[in-house]
């Protein structure tokens, strides 16, 4: 008996149908105490240790011993794996294996759903920590087979639904035994994401920043609940508290979300394992700061199909580079010292998993790191160190049998043992009998040719140059041939058990039915065929830029020691406009202005005929953010734009080209109380958090009028629907904030002892924000149009002792400029917008001039990614409409918005000691003919017109190179994908996202 | 009594603060505008000029020291600038009053082939948006339809009139075709979307347009017993009395569209938009196609595109020898139409010589929309449609009109907006 057959029989009897304490009614209750000894293989115990000619003993699904000189127990079955390699099977942490998919339930409703469906659980249906994936788990043997073929032995699987998705189950891909054996851990990890669940149509959170706020509030609520703060039962919070020690795996789906998840984790001391995106190489310096743990997908993009030259040009350079750079992502992550495991998540077919890991190795990832990321690291992350992912004593016998080193292209996985159960992936290559033979039947000579005998054999028989139709089978060492004679009516049937591959001896029946003996002697080996698929060229990885698009920097620019000379300087200070002056910049600050005799070490920029001003400040912008509106509730004070800054937005660069050096990124106007805003400097190439203006006063967006009433879209279900209701929303929130503050004050005044016995008030992110406003620590920029609502908010604010900081848009500000002045609120308006909706009927371009004439601090803003590039022209309109002086008009886009943002001590004018946020103009800054030549922020030149012009040619060159490379890849047989176009993201106040 | 009347007039204005300005009366007296720097509109300047207007026409263009005629009234415009009225091409002012209020929208007709649709009869001569253009020097506009494949016909209007009939300078001068898009994206959520050559819709739409043109051409060969309104409306384009405006942006679409129209025997073709026209300048020159080029106040169409391309477009096309004017369409286009002079100025900032920039929105525009016999330059015999500005009218700071005329009629430079301005300054002055 051959060992292989013997094992199969052993395994069948070995496979007990149920657990040992289960009764049996099918024969006698037996226990199999057999052991299996694997010998002769190179055993890779873990990424760093291997044994040549090693031995591995398996008992009860686990490894009993590993070594080189083990004594073989008498009851052991021995399998010789000489020439083979054994590796630990891989561990997948991010899968929905065996969990049935849900269909979307959100359709069908006409109006927006604001409340949760579930009762007795959390107030938001997308928070489902009570869900355990074992509830719906059904072992899917088809899928399991695919996963095993890819190398996996253990899978951590969860239902990919919701923001808090509940817990996962860790399952071994053991086809032989049942779930009772397969389930290694029924609460293996908690899973989170920023994506809403299909289990409910509840609208909130409607944005990524809403999802972030919801997770934060959830953690606060869980702590409060566990301290007995709640009057009700909340099974979701109870489950969350119960599971808090489990590992948390956070799924993200884009580059920026990876950092966002890391940020929340850091805030709450959660060591998230973040399912990353595949473009981590673009932002390693940012990621490193969080010391994250990543699950890295290997869904390397296919080359674009660029056959259509028009389409080829529409693909962004960033997307093209992704194809080139992605395979080096794992290497880059490893080099950055970031801990990571691989995941097959995001792959269209798990078959691509191992080939892509190999690709990553080809592109520089060390095989040790690769193996660790497949085995020991995921094992450790899921708290299964020593139980899976290694071949050591006590671990599950989860192992791969390969015919060579794992990461070599030709190596095949032959077997994948899971919990000691052998699963054949690909039978050891049958001895091939391909070749040409001299066939002799009944002393007649034929030529026999056999091919593809390793898979589906085919044969050809020729006698005297006549081809005789031949069918062949080759199975279990038996070769059978059926040859038809030239008339095709008679058949010879031959058989032989092959033992010598060059010479067969057999018997059979001849065409006439007589019994015959036959022989075949090999005359020639078959010629190996070339593998067509193997033409893929190793690409030279293109350098990354910051950000990684055509206009990015190869190396980040740094602050310079610069002297601008012979230039007309708009100081915005008492000095007014200085002709023929100099400005000296050192260490990011303005060191001297006026006549400067000596500036040691400075690079001189001659400004003859040019103008130098402080940078433009846009009080109202929506660029550089991944979302703008959280419209799921009529207040969203809990969300902040600071969470969702997108530093790669090309509009930031375009803004630099128009001289913008500071912007307030405001929440939209979907609700009366909007989200908190972000004040940023468009530092092109920096990470999201580096854009934030340091230590700026915090702001929040409020909004009035048609948008918050939802007048211009068909929505009738949300309060408020009128300006009357809007007033009550503000009154309600301010009142509640007052009471909230009082409750905390009372609690905090308690003695330590009493505090421990008293439940603390619920920590409420919305109310915390409102209290900041009441305390004068957070400032309001309120979207407003008509005079009635402006007046209303002033009165509500007065009642609660709050000062409104800025009315933004404020197109009827001119009608209540006196009231604004009295309240001390500034106006940040459009220069000349009107006629786009009913509430701007009385909007006039003289608005800025009138408010200015009444002593209101006036700014012109953009609210528009296009206009923000030319706010200098908008300032000039204040001269045209209403005759504001040029110097004052210029302040509308520089010093005045700085005042409205409380940053005029640092920016907004050209003054010694202020930040060197400067713009060099080719002409008078408000001349229509003027062009920005250089834009500097903190002494760093982020925009240079000559450089920008040169970049255009470079982009064309690089694109064409990549197009060439992709055409080569396609011709070499590589898969391609359809061209994609980056969508232009244009947010305005009314964009719902 | 006099005071009483002026108070009355003042109150009258205030109470009707949101009503339109009264259209100006016909020119009674001959007028000489003296001493201004005259921007002729053909790319030249005339310093210290004397421009004479009589009976609604320009009768004299001279220097101040060589005046031939006598005038009953002289306007001293020394130190100021005189321009032919600016012309807004491819405009929709007067067709929608408030963007978000559907009831005020008369632009979006349904249907695919609408050559019989005419903007002129829906043009609101009393629109408050229209009146806001005059103080910036925009005195005429081409009013175009926008929907469907064939959108209908445009007309050129004077921007000061009692009604559309009075406003009309030339009716139905152009037929507008929205060329189908060859490349379409899916609407998937997320930062990017698949883009593909939409063979089916693109080629089918072209085929169907071709059939429509062929059938309508056949229809117009003979006198049919039953009238087919759309087919009949096509005839002017075939005989060349109506210009066909091809609205197309992509390189492929521009080339396909122009070749298609030439093959279908359309005589006069103008390209509108043409965001990729810079890639096919030789082709456009070869076919002698004028371009109504997208306004510079727009974003590049792709992340990787030259961030300044929208600004540089006019220079590129002009250097290629093409006849161009400025397209005022785009986001919030109606209320922004008053910024036309600044669009031209922005093109000048990126290489177009200043007088050429003026010419783009005066004589070039007039030529392209077929009204050069009446408008576009300070030329004897043309309409006295012109204005005087304190300074350079392409620059916001100096675009300050002191006088404006349409056919010699002295226009009010007030608007409901200036009235609100004055009303509230008066309110604050009372304190």
Provide key terms for this protein.
A: 993 residues, 9-stranded antiparallel β-sheet, 26 helices, 46 strands, 25% helix, disordered N terminus, B: 431 residues, Urease, subunit C, domain 1, TIM Barrel, 2 domains, 8-stranded mixed β-sheet, 14 helices, 25% strand
General description of the model:
The complex is a heterodimer of chains A (993) and B (431). By secondary structure, chain A is an alpha/beta fold. Helix content of chain A is 25%, strand content 25%. Chain A has 26 helices and 46 strands. The longest helix of chain A is centred in the C-terminal third of the chain and has 27 residues, at 945-971. The two termini of chain A are 68 Å apart. By secondary structure, chain B is α/β, with parallel strands linked by helices. Helices cover 29% and strands 25% of the residues of chain B. Chain B contains 14 helices and 18 strands. In chain B, the strands form three sheets. In chain B, strands 1, 2, 3, 4, 5, 16, 17 and 18 form an eight-stranded mixed sheet that branches. Chain B is globular, with a radius of gyration of 23 Å. At the A-B interface, helix 8, helix 9, helix 14, helix 22 and helix 23 of A face strand 11, helix 11 and helix 14 of B. Strand 46 of chain A pairs antiparallel with strand 11 (192-197) of chain B, so a sheet runs across the interface.
